[in-house]
Design goal:
Layout (H helix, E strand, L loop, with lengths): L1 E5 L2 E6 L16 H4 L11 E9 L5 E3 L3 E4 L3
Antiparallel strand pairs: 1-2, 1-3, 3-4, 3-5
């Protein structure tokens, strides 16, 4: 399973048939609706995405997050 995670919530999952595959996804939610509020480590709204892969043997791999900072 390949999961796209936004702000610690799965927003899209794929079940590829092949090990070697190419996937794409577009987040149609407006950025304002996806933003998390400011917190102790970030004084302005932000969101983050990462990709997580769960293999057939239940081993897990994930990518480093991509942070999106927004100065409103």
């Amino acid at each position: 399973t390949v999961d796209i995670v936004r702000n610690n919530e799965i927003v899209q999952s794929f079940e590829p048939e092949e090990l070697d595959c190419e996937l794409s996804w577009v987040d149609d939610e407006p950025l304002r609706g996806a933003l998390m509020p400011p917190c102790e480590f970030c004084d302005h709204p932000f969101c983050f995405y990462y990709v997580r892969v769960i293999q057939q043997d239940d081993e897990i791999a994930w990518a480093s997050p991509i942070w999106i900072d927004v100065q409103l």
